[in-house]
């Protein structure tokens, strides 16, 4: 290895590329192959650029500009209801929409509404924040559970029933007031 107290740079608009140290009587290079010295700057450039050449970033996700769970849910308004659906390309059921919105924001949640009732912390209706999960018992039976994402201002986004689409509704509508059973907070700060 040649020790050189200075490195000469080739000026360029975008890159400062180091050139090999010039041979001199003070820094002999006779014991090194001249070809190594000539390609060393190129090798250094290739190794340092390796991180950006091979991009290992995950595929681009469809995330709304506000980058929140409620914003992600809002971006899916109009997506068709599909029983068992959990992706925009196929459609959503209520828990599939919730699971996908949280996953897009980095949180893995259970798939079933019944299991979603057990995650996070309970929240009073008067203290709801965007992104909180709101739960309903639409048939007064265990399998009649329904879930949506609170979007703020007394509204929530959900995938309601077969034949419909993801939509935003008023939480204060008579039907939702009657069937409301609680809310859970998964993310403490949105």
Strands, helices and their partners?
Elements: E1 8-10, E2 17-19, H1 34-53, H2 69-74, E3 86-87, E4 91-92, H3 94-104, H4 113-116, E5 121-122, E6 133-137, E7 145-152, E8 155-158, E9 167-170, H5 174-179, E10 180-185
Antiparallel strand pairs: 1-2, 3-4, 5-10, 6-7, 6-10, 7-8, 8-9
Provide a quick synopsis of the model.
This protein has 190 residues and is of the alpha+beta class. It has 2 domains: 8-53, no CATH class; 69-185, endopeptidase fold (from Nostoc punctiforme) (Alpha-Beta Complex), CATH 3.90.1720.
In sequence order, what are the helices and strands, one letter per element?
Answer: EEHHEEHHEEEEEHE
In total, how many domains does the architecture comprise?
A: 2
Report on the biggest sheet. 6 strands, antiparallel
Which stretches are poorly predicted, pLDDT < 50 over at least 5 residues? Answer: 1-21, 46-65
Overall spatial form: elongated
At CATH level 2, the architecture of the largest domain is: Alpha-Beta Complex
CATH class of the largest domain: Alpha Beta
Given the structure, what is the number of helices? 5
Roughly how many Å is the radius of gyration? 29 Å
